[in-house]
Amino acid sequence: MNSDVIFALASGAGRAAVAVLRASGPGTAGVVVALAGRLPAPRMAALRRLRHPESAEVLDQALVLWFPGPASYTGEDSAEFHLHGGPAVVAGVAEALVAAGGRPAEPGEFTRRAFLNGKLDLTAAEGIADLVAAETAGQRRQALRQAGGALAALYGGWAARLTALLARQEAFIEFEDEDLPAGLDDAVGVAAAGLRAEIAAHLADGGRGERLREGLLVAILGAPNAGKSSLLNALVGREAAIVSARAGTTRDVVEARLDLGGVPVTLADTAGLRDAADEIEAEGVRRARRRAEEADLLLLVFAADRPADAETLAWLRPGALVVANKSDLAAAAAGIDGMPVSARTGAGLDELRSRLAEEAVARAGTTAETLLTRPRHRAALQDAVGWLAELDGASLPELRAEALRAAVRALGRITGQVGVEAVLDAVFAEFCIGK
Length: 435
Ligand SMILES: Nc1nc2c(ncn2[C@@H]2O[C@H](COP(=O)(O)OP(=O)(O)OP(=O)(O)O)[C@@H](O)[C@H]2O)c(=O)[nH]1
Ligand SMILES: [Mg+2]
Description:
Elements: E1 5-9, E2 18-24, H1 28-36, E3 46-51, E4 58-67, E5 78-84, H2 87-99, E6 102-104, H3 109-116, H4 122-133, H5 137-147, H6 150-174, H7 184-203, H8 208-214, E7 216-222, H9 228-236, E8 254-260, E9 263-269, H10 279-294, E10 297-303, H11 310-313, E11 321-325, E12 339-340, H12 349-364, H13 375-393, H14 397-415, H15 421-429
Parallel strand pairs: 1-6, 7-9, 7-10, 10-11, 11-12
Antiparallel strand pairs: 1-2, 2-5, 3-4, 4-5, 8-9
Helix pairs in contact: 4-5, 6-7, 6-14, 7-13, 13-14
């Protein structure tokens, strides 16, 4: 497979000023020559007429770049064609690439080759996928750090320390009868316990890195007519949900994305909570509750001109944000201790927005720390911690060595040192074509 010349559109689909097609594989030089006549100097853009290798028809006048391996993204011989970005140009050159012996790449195939050629580890590859998907500055920072090898250094560092401990433990087994310094076995146990505590502290991050990657879900809950949809619209600055004076307007969950302090937030407007007789509305209320169960944060909306309703009060829990909407009509009714806002006049909305951003940053904030970003990493780290915990109970040196070895393997799975095809498939399936 790796000897194929693969190619893909690296830039976005559709019409654009420039479209970038890139190719990679040992036969890339031949493919470039077949289309462009001769190879440009390495890493220097050259303007070339591209021709179909069979018909010799001129397809475009384009910039061609040649990256001889191993100093390329994939580590293989690679090339880029910067074309005029029309769909027919791209299609024509793609056809010519096939005629020259290339084939379209699978999603993630470029980065997979980079990984297989040792250009990056699995966490860096994931960082690149995240960077391409990043919607907010916070996500970009986290992805860039990961793509730059921050997680690889952290997990690789732990693996290296464990490997050193394993070597000491194995020495202890081999030279058991000889005079090794007393307490060597103990020293291994102490060092392993220290590492275990470090990994456990990294795991106890409240899921912030994972939340930042995936985005935060905020569910808006409240009685019919409290003004939930009006608030959603006011917060996102467009008419995302239908607003009407009739109670029970919203049925489906209406979602809109928002960037709050660098954290991507999905605001979910829901059906007003009540015992609905109407079948469709009742389904809406069920959906509202389900979304609320999944939410990272609840925004409870009461109308200031009404007494607080029991259905909404039932969702009041520590960490929930409470607002008293329609502050233009009345001061908050007794029993509602919430931020006064008015979706109609906009009063209090800036304060609400900054409160929401504060909460989002607290739950998914970017910090200088290197945070865990994926469930895959979490599972492997928990596995490693579990093996290190076994060490305490194991008295036989062989069992201790076995536990250390298993912990090293668990860490190796994260970075891809312990390669499993299934893991690779799962990681690279996230990529889009061209990455
Ligand atoms: N005066 C005043 N009216 C408001 C305010 N916010 C919403 N309204 C009105 O209240 C009514 C209900 O607003 P919606 O946003 O549809 O309320 P909802 O909570 O989404 O209602 P359901 O979808 O039925 O659950 C509409 O007539 C709005 O114009 C406000 O801050 N002040
Ligand atoms: Mg509504």
